[in-house]
Amino acid sequence: MSTLLTADQVRVEYGPLVAVNDVSFSLEGGQLLGLVGPNGAGKTTLMRVLAGLMSPTRGEARVMNKPVLGKDVDVRREVGFAPDSPPAYEDISLVTFLRFVALSYQLDRQEAEERIDFWLEHLWLEDKRDVRIGQLSRGMRQRVTLARTFLPNPHVLLLDEPLTGLDPAGRVQLRGVLASLRNQGCAMIVSSHILTDLEAVSTHIAILEHGRLIRFGPTHALHGDTEGRRRYAIRCVGGVEGCADRLAAWPEITDVRGTDGAVTFEYHDGDEAAAALLAELVREGLRVSSFHPLREGLEEAYLRSGLRQVD
Fold it and tell me: What domains appear along the chain, each with residue ranges and CATH number?
């Protein structure tokens, strides 16, 4: 796959504040980057630069190897950007709004109607086509924003918190749509505070802090970046509290947490280390009913980065 999106030393300054600090990466077709970070990390600002909606202080964003703010204005038609809180024409119907969007992209009438019907179906808006946008719930309006973004079939998609406002069923359905677009060859950036959903569809993960890109890489690689330690789960007869207290006092066991009737903690990775620890715990009188290592997910990788707040 060819490179579709590039951030090349992108920097954005607002006076003394550095909102985006020399960020560089590239995405090929078929890659979906999950973008996470605390409030004020610079995620939205970075996405606006990549979409060509604002100029960086220095550096450059490129789409299909062309500067997004260069002389070739048609390249910006290849970028679809869905902001977190988009403006909407509240007094017109959903289908009228989408026809307006199609007209602005100079789609012929038949093609426009086919695409509108397609996205109304795939974003579960068919029964809302004649409803005024102002009458729709937040979740429905979020789907309208996505329909508007997907309608021109851009090669690059930048979605800022697209899962916000959706119910659990809607989130599952949207994950399927994102996976389909990814598999069709789009390059995508999706920001979200729902890390489990993001992990399910992302090929790559980036963690942004104070405008700096502190982690970037394939999703599977982030799972294994544990510096020789691993998270385990244990259940003990007698409940969580006593088990957690014993583990918290154990040498080299760290980050002990009680959750859902079990206790999780960090300890040395490897089968030998785990077996030796379990034997020692039983020998010291801990009545263990189950013990197993956990696969580290995106949430654990995020917390391991030292960032405790997800916006």
Answer: 3-222 (3.40.50.300), 227-295 (3.30.70.920)
